[in-house]
Design brief:
heterodimer, A: 155 residues, alpha+beta, 5 strands, disordered N terminus, disordered C terminus, B: 131 residues, mainly beta, 2 helices, 10 strands
């Protein structure tokens, strides 16, 4: 189910079991798989030099039995959110400090890279630009101390 | 290796000019060491200076402990003698217009690291020195 795979570079597309129902989802994944494969080939050429995602990480990503078992029967929002949090923790657990992910909540796809700019570029490359998604910096939550928030209220 | 020079205004705010890549323009940025991103601008400023607003959203933690949703954008600047791509956080415009001479952006520690920032509140000068 998951299209996650280990590669020579650190930039991975990961797919959640909470993705769209088949057959629509299956068709979309088949279309994407060709794009993803091309991307992996480029990554193997060594464009990015951060540590690769390990086999252990991959096997854990591919093995979310609780979520798979629950997939057909997810009915309530709290259960859905709980599964998402579990999934998210599994995905980001061993990612390096300072790396970044972009998450497409509609399909469950994760794209991880050494920086947020790289993750955004890769996400656009894989899925096209303009697709709403959530970006997150691993270990470095963005803090905003002052400035424009104050300016906007006093101007 | 380059150096960026700036000044402290009469409101004790450290300000520098950030030159845009491939554009004969610069924006006035408030050096904000409480912000750990690179640049933070409003939507109108992003449009004015050609920063691309992406479809990616993020959450930022505010000083008071609350959080807010912002958009992520991309752009290119000339920084410390080199051209570099930057990540730009973009927030919707405030309801009121900023006053004349107000900074266009926040400049965070993402652009300061791993360099040296010297703020002299006696001479009212700033120096960012590349390392």
């Amino acid at each position: 189910m998951s299209s996650s795979a280990n590669s020579g570079g650190f930039c991975e597309e990961r797919q959640s079991p909470l993705a769209l129902p088949e057959p629509q989802h299956k068709h979309r994944m088949e279309t994407r798989s060709a794009v993803v494969q091309g991307e992996r080939d480029r990554l193997r050429a060594g464009r990015l030099d951060a540590p690769p995602i390990s086999d252990a990480q991959d096997s854990r990503l591919n093995d979310c039995p609780a979520m798979r078992a629950e997939k057909p029967s997810i009915r309530d929002l709290s259960r859905f959110c709980e599964l998402w949090l579990t999934r998210h923790e599994t995905v980001v657990h061993d990612l390096p400090h300072g790396s970044a992910i972009v998450v497409d909540f509609a399909t469950g796809h994760y794209v991880a890279a050494v920086s947020a700019l790289d993750a955004m570029d890769r996400f656009d490359l894989l899925f096209g630009s303009g697709r709403p998604a959530w970006a997150h910096d691993i270990g470095i939550p963005i803090a905003l101390g002052s400035g424009l928030w104050a300016l906007s209220s006093e101007a | 290796m380059g150096t960026v020079l700036g000044g402290v205004d009469d409101r004790r705010r450290p300000l520098v000019r950030v030159a845009l890549a491939e554009r004969d323009e610069s924006l006035l940025a408030l050096v904000d060491t409480g912000f750990n991103g690179e640049l933070y601008v409003t939507e109108s400023v992003a449009r004015r200076f050609g920063f691309e607003r992406t479809s990616f959203d993020s959450e930022v933690a505010l000083a008071g402990g609350n959080s807010a949703k912002v958009s992520r954008g991309r752009g290119s600047i000339r920084w410390l003698g080199q051209q570099r791509r930057v990540q730009v956080f973009i927030v919707d415009d405030p309801r009121t217009h900023p006053r004349e001479g107000e900074p266009d952006a926040l400049l965070g520690t993402g652009l300061l690291s791993p360099h040296i920032l010297l703020v002299d509140f006696t001479a009212m000068t700033i120096e960012i020195e590349a390392q």
